[in-house]
Structures are given as structure tokens and as C-alpha cells.
Amino acid sequence: MALPVLSARNITKKYGGVPIIEDVSLELHQGELVCLLGVSGIGKSTLFSVLSGLVVPENGQVLLKGKDITGHPGHVGYMQQKDLLLPYKTVLDNVALPLVIRGMKQRQAREKADGFFETFGIDGTQRKYPAQLSGGMRQRAALLRTYLFGGAAALLDEPFGALDAITKSAMHSFYLGIMQKIELPTLFITHDIDEAILISDRIYIMTGRPGKITHEIKIGEAKPRGEDFTVSDAFIAHKREILRVLREDTSL
């Protein structure tokens, strides 16, 4: 198998001397969408902080295409649940911001960012401000900004968690379509079991205190997976397995 785009090796992170995550290892390969599933407080966001380089672990390594990036931010895109768009900047300037931070002149950054607006389904919003956009459109803009920040891989921390069910479903279809075009390997935190099964190639499950990755589930059904898939025998079997793992977690 090809070298993983992003990998974690035996990551342990403590706060106040107390381990939050322990001996966590995972891999993300080109074009994959992998979900990280677990109960609240298990350490998923802590792991993302380590993977993004914002936090240095006590033990372990983060590798990007084999290069050690542990504790060095700026190599992968990281999008939190809140879109964090700056209200006083236009959508175009919000999206272009990572390019400006990297040293590109603003005019050039705007031109490059503008070239992706149609692909991400937000063409026509360039001169608007975040407050003028719907929740779904804001998330699309934030996803594009994340892609421009770090094109090698993306970390998405419950990006659709605040959306209503109809908008979330539309965003699933949208993001899977984007994945086919740009093949951006993505690690995706969710609490939503149905969401994880619907969009993932693989699912890592974190359990315990401190949090550890204890199970990996492969979702082999072809994507995109329509509404009929959610009532299929395969979907129900995957969901039953995940629920069994979570119910057996001694932390619950």
C-alpha cells in the first residue's frame, strides 16, 4: 500500500499530568474520507489539535507523507465546528486569507481563491459578507478556506453538526462530490453514527479513559450512498456493530 498522506504513531497527550489520549495510531490515505467516532470528552478534538501541530504530545509522532510535522502547524487544514469566518471581511477575502498568511499578495490570493468558488458551489458570494449567507453556504466557504490552507489533507471537527437535518444531508452530497473532484484526504470527527456510515471509507472508534482507538470498521459500499442505503441491511449491520462497541465501552 502507498505511503499514508497523514499518520499518527503512538500519540499520548496529557493535561495536568492526566492522560487524555493514549497510544493512538491511525492512517489517512490519498482520496480517503475517514471518520473518527466516539462519545463526548473521549479526546477526539485533543487528537486533532495534535495532528494539526497546535499541541505537542508527550509521546508519539505525526507524519505527513513520511515527514515528521509533530508540533509544527500549517501543514494540514483544520476546520472546527464553527466556521470562524471573519464578519468584517468579504467571503472572498475570508477564503483567500490562508494564501495571504502564506505570503501571497492579496490580489493574487483573491484571484486564486476565486477560481475555486464555482467548484465549491458558492460562486456569486465573493462580495458578500458571512452574515449574508445561509449556514450551509458558510460551511462551504469554510471548507474552501480549509482546502486552501493545507491542500495535502484536511481535519474537519464536526463541520456539519450545527446544521439542520435537510441542510446536513445536502452538505453530505456536496462534500462527497467535492471529494471526487479534488481527492482531498479527510479525517472527520462526528458523534453521528448515521453520518459516519453514510460518508466514510473507514471509521475509527475511540473508547475508554484515556481515549484510545480500539476499533476500525471498513465501509466498503460504493459512494455516493443514497437515502436507500440508510435502510439497507448493510447499513443496519454497520450501525449495530458500532452501537455494540460503544455500549461495551467501560467509560459509558
Look at the helices and sheets and give the structural class. alpha/beta
Beta strands, count: 10
Q: CATH-wise, what's the superfamily of the largest domain?
A: P-loop containing nucleotide triphosphate hydrolases
CATH C-level class of the largest domain is Alpha Beta
CATH level-two architecture of the largest domain: 3-Layer(aba) Sandwich
Main sheet attributes: strand count, strand direction, barrel closure: 6 strands, mixed
Report the portion of residues in β strands: 15-25%
- CATH topology (level 3) name of the largest domain: Rossmann fold
Looking across the biggest beta sheet, what order are the strands in?
6-7-8-3-9-10
Order of helices and strands: EEEHEEEHHHEHEHEEH
Q: What is the number of independent domains?
A: 2
Shape: globular
| Rounded Rg | 18 Å
Helix content: 25-40%
- The parts where pLDDT drops under 50 for at least 5 residues are none
The residue-averaged pLDDT reads 88
Span between termini: 36 Å
The number of helices is 7
What does this structure look like?
- This protein is of the alpha/beta class.
- The protein folds into two domains: 1-76 and 153-252, Rossmann fold, CATH 3.40.50.300; 81-149, no CATH class.
- 33% of the residues lie in helices and 23% in strands.
- It is built from seven helices and ten strands.
- It is globular and about 50 Å long.
- The protein starts with 5 loop residues before the first strand and ends with a helix.
